[in-house]
Amino acid sequence: MDLALLPQERLRAGIEQFYARHMQLLDTGRAEEWARTFTEDGTFALPGRPEPSRGRAELAEGASRAYAAQRAAGETHRHWHGMLDITTQDDGTVRVRCYALVVLTPRGGDPRLHRACVCEDVLVDEGGEWKVRARVVTRDGA
């Protein structure tokens, strides 16, 4: 995809749609599909972990475990990405820095803000689809 020829509004709309699908896959426990929204060698660094998760298999396993733990605890998690700052790079990648909120709703309870984070991604185009090559998440208050 030649980013120089892509109007900024269209670029933004495509990336926003990517995140909408990406987060809904995660929140509904579709771990394998969610992992396929990363490159084959994609990385995901979270606070408190000594090393980032690497590769689709490891990403899917982690997402599956987290979803199972949420279900066992009677919780629903919803991820929201907003305030996207999108910067195209000369190498064809796109850097996205955004705020990520996680809303937790206990079974029979009221939703509450669970986490507020900053998410920094490097996105690449693979066959007309955005994929995360690298993600670094930092938590407010951590």
TrEMBL record:
<dbReference type="InterPro" id="IPR037401">
    <property type="entry name" value="SnoaL-like"/>
</dbReference>
<protein>
    <submittedName>
        <fullName>Nuclear transport factor 2 family protein</fullName>
    </submittedName>
</protein>
<feature type="domain" description="SnoaL-like">
    <location>
        <begin position="12"/>
        <end position="135"/>
    </location>
</feature>
<dbReference type="Pfam" id="PF13577">
    <property type="entry name" value="SnoaL_4"/>
</dbReference>
<dbReference type="InterPro" id="IPR032710">
    <property type="entry name" value="NTF2-like_dom_sf"/>
</dbReference>
